[in-house]
Amino acid sequence: MPIIEVNHVTKEYQLGHITSLKENVVNSYRRMTGKPLHKREEFKALDDVSFSIEQGEVVGIIGHNGAGKSTLLKHLANISKPTKGNVIVRGSVAPLIEVGAGVNPELTGRENIYLNGAILGIPKKIIQQKLDEIIEFSELEQFIDTPVKRYSSGMTVKLGFSIATSLDADILIVDEVLAVGDLAFQRKCFDRMEDMIKRQGKTVLLVSHNIRQIQRLCNRVILLDHGRINMEGEPQVVCDSFYEQSDRKIRANIDHTKTHTIASGEVELVELYFLDHAKRKVDSLSYNENCSIHFKINVLEELEGVTFGFGFHTTDFLYLTTHNSEEQLNINRLPAGDHEIVCKVNRLPLLPGIYLVRFGITSGKAAAGVFYGESLAHFQVIGDIPITVRDGFFALEANWMQLGV
What we know:
Blueprint: E1 4-14, H1 21-33, E2 42-53, E3 58-62, H2 69-76, E4 84-89, E5 93-96, H3 109-119, H4 124-138, H5 153-166, E6 171-175, H6 183-198, E7 203-207, H7 211-217, E8 220-225, E9 228-233, H8 235-253, E10 260-263, E11 267-275, E12 281-282, E13 284-286, E14 291-299, E15 303-313, E16 319-324, E17 331-334, E18 337-345, E19 353-363, E20 368-382
Parallel strand pairs: 3-7, 3-8, 5-6, 6-7, 13-20
Antiparallel strand pairs: 1-2, 1-4, 8-9, 10-20, 11-12, 11-14, 14-18, 15-16, 15-17, 15-19, 19-20
């Protein structure tokens, strides 16, 4: 028997708007005369959603902002009630849905531990046995007897995560909280989740925009889109579909992305473009194929000791690589006028996705910057990837072997 059942759940909200004095008077008259009021526009956060989860399953829920992910989790945690349909949960639930959820700001950290344990139906004796473990994991020993309203948002989530993952609930519901705190605490959170999943066999529902995290932790993924289930199944297949949707959305919006440039006025970037392995001008490149990147510049004032550099970065400005010309191109003097600089890339190792280009020029012995720009052009990497490549941004050219055989 499933531990969670979601049966044709629909959640509707009425969109709020400011009403005029005339509308208020008309609605008052309609109430007095028994006539129906003018209905406000309705929005379906969830639209006929159905699925079930077996005990011990780890299910990821992904989708773009506004897809209905958090609304769905609030129904599973019994925080909200559906407009239509029903949710059946067979077991105790520890929800960690948003910053401060389940934590009373007027109580101290210690008092909140006992409160949350009582809500989950855990005897006080058991809570006392786990108290030191919870406090130690939260790293809040110094503040545990301070009212939570004086905590930062990060401290509050640290406490909430420590409580939710230490007390013995049957189901853990987590919404975007594995990124709380500093990097060391994030690592602790991730390790705790893996322990709960692999050793304790907990049922976990996880919402995150970190798709690679979802792929690693979950054994099934549900993709929501505008309140409906768009796809459900194996993490790799569903996450790949989500990546494709994201790439299309990024390409549709990329022309509105602002470039970030710093220039001394000595150089202008006229054009930046790619040629594929067949010498065709393209904005899509093939994975593991040769290509070249071309920079057309207009030098307004003669430069000496010039070095060029370019790199690729993600749409959220994660720098992936940089390549400078200083070891391959010796330019002591670059006269005023138009010039074209080319860099050939052998077997492009970037995995399929959307990427952007940054480009810079330095001059003189002090390598003073005369031009630097980010998000100067976007391109898409396409193509089939080998089965050995699953996560990340690059494919390594590597070989496995077994010694002594």
